Automatic annotation (TrEMBL):
Gene Ontology molecular functions: U3 snoRNA binding
GO biological process terms held by the UniProt record: endonucleolytic cleavage in 5'-ETS of tricistronic rRNA transcript (SSU-rRNA, 5.8S rRNA, LSU-rRNA); endonucleolytic cleavage to generate mature 5'-end of SSU-rRNA from (SSU-rRNA, 5.8S rRNA, LSU-rRNA)
Gene3D superfamilies: YVTN repeat-like/Quinoprotein amine dehydrogenase
Name assigned to this protein: Uncharacterized protein
GO cellular component terms listed in the entry, alphabetical order: 90S preribosome; nucleolus
Each WD repeat, start to end: 1-24, 33-76, 77-118, 242-276, 288-322, 342-375, 409-450
Swiss-Prot/TrEMBL keywords: Repeat, WD repeat
Lineage: Eukaryota, Metazoa, Chordata, Craniata, Vertebrata
The keyword Repeat belongs to this UniProt entry's keyword annotation: yes
InterPro entries the UniProt entry points to: Quinoprotein_ADH-like_sf, WD40/YVTN_repeat-like_dom_sf, WD40_PAC1, WD40_repeat_CS, WD40_repeat_dom_sf, WD40_rpt
Pfam families: WD40
Length: 460
């Protein structure tokens, strides 16, 4: 859909092959244009309102020009052989530039309704805009009065093209590329400073984890169904996209002061990130590997001494020391090696969490149990106790001498998906796929309360 330059007309393209125009002020349909082949996925008004023309493209890869006075298609521009992804007009309205996933851009003479030049761009293009003649773009190789346009495509690169010579005059890789503003066909002068002004991300798919970040919770960091992390500034909704993981990120946790956080993913690794509190920029400072399967959960220490604990689908939990000192901004992330490893459960470890005083660790697993571990001076001592349902059983210490399991709590009939300590009371909460949330006493290892969420039970 798109608005005209007066913002009073709205054009929408549908999967039924029709285009409808709507009077936004009076709230009724003014036109119903028929004749497109298949789904109409692109519509754009001509910037000169006196022409009363609408341009559209559908699955047949043609560009149709509609006369809104007669509601008829007056011409079909044919050049692309794959989906047309953008339409951009020159400042004088006499030239149209179309981009497509066929790795070309076409420059059209709208008077002759013919293609003037085909520009090979060597990548599927998802968007394009025309540079206006009002600003100085000489730093990007734009010289003379010729028409230049910008493309963004599948390679994650912004390119500036000279339409007369079909030559690329400037290239800048993402995500540090300048911000684009295509309102009224003009580009914002922030192009000239080569800095990203603001980035908005609207489609996030599944949200797997979210945490507050920053000294006063000024940001949130979000793990979605992807290998990138998204950090949103709450005041402006501007977003940073953090690259590093190579598979879906499953869990994140933030250190007490809010300037550092950790993430873990299906790529069997975890990463440590640090935020510059002045600029708000986030950088990866360390990465760790050693698990043999996806890392499903990570927990940060709560007091000053810094360490991490991770839980994995390889049934183990690992403790990681933070590098000291941390590398400076711009340096390569340092490698972290696990200080301790223990086989903690019989199935996937879904969740780990550390108590507010750093003395206890809880883990929840697909084996239907939650376990409580005692941390001694930042390490795990030997395994002394397990607790099964309904009564406790004493077990021999582990040979590793690394862990001390204070209690293993049964009672859930399906996997335990989340464990969490209370910030004020000596209790532990566990949430399970059986639809129940249980509150456990840390001192007595007994269940204090059970809440059932029947409406969600059938989802698992």
């Amino acid at each position: 859909m798109t608005f005209d330059c007066t913002s009073t007309l709205l054009a929408t393209g549908g999967c039924d092959g029709t285009i409808k125009l709507w009077d936004v002020v009076k709230q009724y349909c003014t036109h119903n244009l028929k004749g497109s082949s298949g789904v109409v996925h692109l519509v754009e008004f001509h910037p000169d309102i006196s022409r009363l023309q609408l341009f559209s493209s559908s699955v047949d890869c043609g560009i149709r020009i509609w006369d809104l006075r007669t509601s008829k298609c007056i011409c079909v521009l044919e050049s692309h052989y794959s989906a047309v992804t953008s339409l951009a007009f020159s400042p004088d309205g006499q030239t149209l530039i179309s981009s497509g996933r066929d790795k070309i851009c076409s420059v059209w003479d709208l008077k002759k309704k013919a293609v003037k030049r085909t520009v090979p761009v060597y990548e599927a293009v998802e968007g394009g805009v025309v540079l206006s003649g009002k600003s100085d773009y000489s730093q990007m190789g734009v010289k003379g009065e010729g028409l230049h346009f910008v493309t963004a495509g599948s390679k994650g690169v912004l390119r500036v093209w000279d339409s007369s010579s079909a030559r690329c005059v400037f290239t800048q890789t993402l995500p540090d590329a300048p911000a684009l503003n295509t309102e009224e066909g003009d580009l914002d002068p922030y192009w000239a400073c080569f800095s990203l002004l603001m980035k908005f991300v609207g489609y996030n798919d599944d949200i797997l984890d979210v945490k507050f970040l920053g000294k006063d919770d000024t940001h949130i960091v979000v793990a979605t169904n992807s290998s990138q992390l998204k950090v949103f500034e709450l005041a402006t909704n501007s977003c940073q996209i953090l690259y590093g993981h190579t598979d879906t990120i499953l869990s994140i946790d933030v250190f007490r002061k809010g300037s550092m956080f950790a993430s873990c993913a299906k790529d069997k690794s975890l990463r440590l990130w640090k935020m510059d509190l002045k600029s708000g920029r986030v950088h990866c400072v360390a990465q760790g590997s050693g698990h043999s399967n996806a890392v499903g959960s990570v927990a940060c220490s709560r007091l000053k001494k810094g360490f991490l604990v991770s839980g994995s689908q390889d049934c183990t939990i690992k403790m990681w020391d933070l590098p000291d000192p941390l590398p400076d901004v711009g340096c390569e992330p340092v490698l972290m090696t696990a200080r301790l490893t223990e086989r903690a459960h019989d199935k996937d470890v879904n969740s780990v969490t550390i108590s507010p005083n750093d003395k206890l660790l809880a883990s929840g697993s697909q084996d239907r149990t939650a376990k409580l571990w005692s941390l001694v001076f930042g390490v795990f001592s030997s395994l002394l106790w397990t607790r099964s349902w309904p009564r406790p059983q004493r077990t021999a210490p582990s040979k590793s001498g690394a862990f001390k399991n204070s209690a293993a709590s049964g009672g859930h009939s399906r996997g335990v998906w989340c464990v969490q300590f209370s910030p004020v009371d000596q209790v532990l909460a566990t949430a399970s796929a059986d639809g129940s949330i249980k509150i456990w006493s840390i001192q007595e290892f007994s269940c204090l309360r059970v809440s059932y969420t029947y409406m969600f039970k059938e989802l698992f």
